[in-house]
Amino acid sequence: MRPARAEDAAAIRAVVAAAFERDDEARMVDEARAAGAALVELVAEQGGEIVGHVLFNRMAAPPGRRFAGLAPLSVRPDMQRQGIGDALTRAGLDALRAQDVEACLVLGHPDYYPRFGFSPEAAARVISPYAGSPAFMALELVPGALAEPLAVDYPAAFD
Question: What is the architecture, at CATH level 2, of domain 2-158?
Answer without folding.
Answer: 3-Layer(aba) Sandwich (3.40)
